[in-house]
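Is this the right way to post structure tokens for a design question? Let me know if I should format differently. Anyway, here goes:
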């Protein structure tokens, strides 16, 4: 059986019959180091309980959650391999495009330098969002978001959660729609690094650069193809083909694009918090014909675990 075609429920059935016969990868997840709601310890415990074998933690522009995760895995002897990752925000043709880095050396000077610059941009953007919301008669949003970020990288999600908590808007999705997306009161155009810069730094720090959730950008099919072409031309390694919330058609299409643009295929839940529709390891398998991003990983998995 092709190991890439196995999903988590099939795996649970097969596990007792053929232990360790295949590996479940989830290569995109968040913790409280950015806008996830679980601590790194809680996240790795949940991943292990969901049958995930290889987990990448990919917080927004920070690697701060990885050490705690690694300690938790060791102390609790979890059957889980950790991939050192980060999700870097970039700007391409006025669109915010996310690039996931996998298997990086988190102490590499170029990576550290880039993440310091990105953190500064995050902080400045958050302050500017706060000013715009203040003008729109929503006071203290910056302070509220900062408080919810609790020392982690601040994101628009923290503003959204704050506004929901204040009872101003019913849910996070509505806050984005009403206030935080392009053209709305609290939208601040970001100044992220370029795709080229992100790929360059990821490559220098020994990792693989993966175009994150390509189905989630507001791009026409013509522009999506341009994005794939650009990402591949700049030396990107792979693309996320499989996510848990996705139609079969979209997964098949992204698989075809991966082949067309000679990109390896990755998969990840983009888990942020326990909820009904997204779960660690759920529905993650690759369509046939693609080359998995882990193709050349050593059998003990490229993880930087010392
Ligand atoms: P930022 O990096 O500050 O631009 O925040 C981006 C994060 O906000 C994403 O990683 C998502 O977690 C979240 N997000 C973006 N758009 C939406 C949306 N429409 N609804 C809910 N969450 C969103
Ligand atoms: Mn997020
Ligand atoms: Mn993203
Ligand atoms: Mn993400």
């Amino acid at each position: 059986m092709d190991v890439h075609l196995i999903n988590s429920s099939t795996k649970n059935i097969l596990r007792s019959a053929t232990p360790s016969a295949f590996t479940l990868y989830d290569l995109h997840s968040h913790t409280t180091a950015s806008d996830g709601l679980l601590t790194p310890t809680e996240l790795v415990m949940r991943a292990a309980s969901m049958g995930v074998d290889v987990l990448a933690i990919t917080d927004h522009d920070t690697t701060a959650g990885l050490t705690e995760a690694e300690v938790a895995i060791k102390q609790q002897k979890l059957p889980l391999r950790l991939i050192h990752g980060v999700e870097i925000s970039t700007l391409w043709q006025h669109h915010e495009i996310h690039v996931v880095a996998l298997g990086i050396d988190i102490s590499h000077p170029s990576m550290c330098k880039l993440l310091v610059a990105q953190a500064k941009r995050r902080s400045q953007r958050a302050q500017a969002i706060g000013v715009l919301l203040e003008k729109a008669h929503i006071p203290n949003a910056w302070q509220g978001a900062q408080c919810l970020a609790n020392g982690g990288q601040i994101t628009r999600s923290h503003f959204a959660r704050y506004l929901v908590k204040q009872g101003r808007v019913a849910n996070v999705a509505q806050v984005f729609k009403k206030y935080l997306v392009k053209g709305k009161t609290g939208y601040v155009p970001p100044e992220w690094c370029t795709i080229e810069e992100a790929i360059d730094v990821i490559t220098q720090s020994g990792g693989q650069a993966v175009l994150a959730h390509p189905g989630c950008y507001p791009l026409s099919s013509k522009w999506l193809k341009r994005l794939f072409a650009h990402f591949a031309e700049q030396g990107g390694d792979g693309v996320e083909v499989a996510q848990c919330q996705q139609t079969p058609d979209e997964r098949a299409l992204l698989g075809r694009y991966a082949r067309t643009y000679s990109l390896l295929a990755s998969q990840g839940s983009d888990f942020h918090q326990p909820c009904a529709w997204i779960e660690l390891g759920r529905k993650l398998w690759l369509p046939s014909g693609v080359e998995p991003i882990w193709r050349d990983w050593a059998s003990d998995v490229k993880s930087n675990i010392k």
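Format looks fine. Someone answered above. Worth noting: The chain has a mean pLDDT of 93. The pocket of manganese (II) ion (ligand 2) is lined by residues 30, 35, 60, 155, 157, 272 (CB under 6 Å).
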